[in-house]
Amino acid sequence: MFGGLIGYAVGHIKSGLPRWMYVFIIFGSCSIVMGVVTLLFLPDLPSTAKFLKEPERIIAVERVAANRQGVKNRHFKKYQAWQTLYDPKTWILFVMATGAQIPNSALTSFSSLIIKSFGVDTLGTQYLQIPGGAVQFLSLLAGGFICTRFPNTRCQIMTFANIVCIIGASMLVALPASNKWGRLVGLWLCYFQGLGFSMSLTIVSSNVAGYTKKQLTGAALFTGYCVGNIIGPQTFKDGEKPGYHSAYVA
Hints:
Blueprint: H1 2-10, H2 19-41, H3 54-66, H4 78-86, H5 88-108, H6 111-116, H7 122-127, H8 130-149, H9 154-174, H10 180-189, H11 193-207, H12 211-234, H13 245-249
Keywords: Membrane, Transmembrane, Transmembrane helix, Transport
Transmembrane segments: 20-42, 91-115, 127-147, 159-178, 184-204
Pfam families: MFS_1
């Protein structure tokens, strides 16, 4: 949401550096500041959390031990590595992460191109991304609330979010070019993919026990994330612009 607003504001700059440089300076600076804040204030372990009192730290560590989740350590356990390889969840999460990130590259790197194909100017492509950000923001809040309020519903929420994303992409494929508003709403619905992917991250943290296995499963999921983001941009073919039919199908 704020990205669209900042992009719209940057679009009005008429002097100084090229406008695209301001985008990198603004967001790069925010990322650096948050990186430093995270490094300084985000604890690695319950036992090092400064905002917990000593008895609370003991309770937090014992709760992790009772869940058999594993406390951070540097000892590589070979049997857990083999468990990771043989566990179907590892490969299901890998495929899910790959699939979820194919549309992600379209929604992040190429959303301006998609919206521009609807016949709006460059500034319009910026403010028309704001509703998509709102959809993603609100869906994440709603999904987190539902899964907290109703235990064991994460897979159902994940499935729902992915189905909505598929429906949105289907609208982009099936609706005629003249139906610009319908296609725009379809694009905004694709932002539900963020909820589906976020739910898969929580499955790694909660449903995978053993520190070595958890780290390797997380690495497999992140590899799928990268593979999906590599595949996504390849579906945008110059010969298909401004329609980009293959990208919508993917």
